[in-house]
Design brief:
RNA Polymerase Alpha Subunit, Chain A, domain 2; 5-stranded mixed sheet; alpha+beta; 6-stranded mixed sheet; 3 domains
């Protein structure tokens, strides 16, 4: 009974007692840990990968595999450093003909890795297959243009200037199949919607797979002016082209039109050169209704409606 009380007295709350117990426990743990690391173990580990190929001539179409899983046997210290990522040198896979290799079977890698896992014995490769996709590197200049802004402008607004793209050409470089697939001119698209004022911004060139294809420069400046558009009803002089020789006279007349114009347009000046033209080249004798085409309108104005003309020859 006296012995039992003596043991209880040791574990009674006493800062000195507990501090000594903890130090002993910590020392025992460290001793056990260092002793365990000196033994040999077999385990599975992930190793970083590096592919060796001519980077000046070839480029990956998709991201290359970053690691491979191996079963290895080695000293506990070496295995601990490997698993902790301390000074881990990537395993190298040479690719002599990069474009011809699409997959690498895991069992074929043992001969490459056997001499690269220093301080360990490689038992076997756990990774079944590595998929790679490398293509010859290519580059070319492509012309840029602006896609339709119909869905970008606010309803009731329209362009009143040319769209200026600076620079209007860029150099692209990447895998040859992807570079050859880019259509030219490449149409730029804006993400902005409901634009109702002049636009001047740097816009990123959103090529397919832009993470692989290099663009120089990656952005361009886009500028254009926007104004409110209104519909104006007026009339323009009717003219005929390719008049048959059998016709000696066509009465001069005016045709009603509805034109979309920027707000504040001086219509007298705008319609000074405008005319409605009907082409009689293939017209036979008889009567018909012809829809004239308006020519001579200033830029950024368009015909909404025009009346057809009844002719008889």
């Amino acid at each position: 009974m006296r012995l039992f009380h003596s043991i209880l007295n040791i574990f009674r709350f006493n800062r000195r007692n507990w501090r000594a117990i903890l130090l002993c426990f910590f020392a025992a743990t460290i001793f056990w840990f260092f002793n365990a690391l000196n033994k040999s173990y077999t385990t599975n580990l992930n190793f970083p990968l590096s592919f060796e190929y001519d980077r000046e001539q070839f480029v990956p179409v998709r991201t290359l595999p970053a690691q491979v899983r191996l079963n290895v046997t080695g000293n506990g210290w070496d295995l601990f450093k490997r698993s902790a990522g301390v000074k881990v040198v990537p395993l190298e896979i040479p690719l002599e003909r990069p474009a011809d290799v699409k997959k690498i079977v895991g069992t074929s890698l043992q001969r490459f890795f056997a001499t690269q896992v220093d301080g360990m014995e490689l038992n076997f490769v756990l990774t079944d297959t590595l998929y790679v996709d490398l293509e010859p590197k290519a580059g070319r200049w492509i012309k840029l243009t602006m896609d339709s802004l119909h869905f970008n402008l606010k309803r009731g607004y329209g362009l009143v200037s040319e769209v200026i793209i600076k620079p209007d050409c860029i150099y692209v470089e990447g895998p040859q199949p992807l570079i050859n697939r880019i259509k030219e001119p490449f149409k730029l698209r804006l993400r902005q919607r409901n634009i109702d004022e002049s636009f001047s911004e740097d816009v990123e060139i959103d090529l397919p797979q832009s993470d692989i294809i290099k663009r120089d420069p990656p952005t361009v400046s886009i500028d254009f002016k926007v104004d409110r558009m209104i519909n104006i009803m007026d009339s323009v002089k009717l003219e005929a082209e390719n008049i048959p020789p059998t016709v000696s006279y066509i009465e001069e007349t005016w045709v009603p039109v509805t034109i979309e114009v920027p707000e504040g347009t001086n219509m007298k000046e705008a319609l000074r050169e405008a005319r409605a033209v009907m082409d009689l080249k293939d017209f036979k004798r008889g009567s018909a209704r012809v829809l004239p085409k308006v020519k001579g309108l200033p830029p950024f104005m368009r015909v909404i409606k025009i009346d057809s003309v009844n002719i008889k020859l």
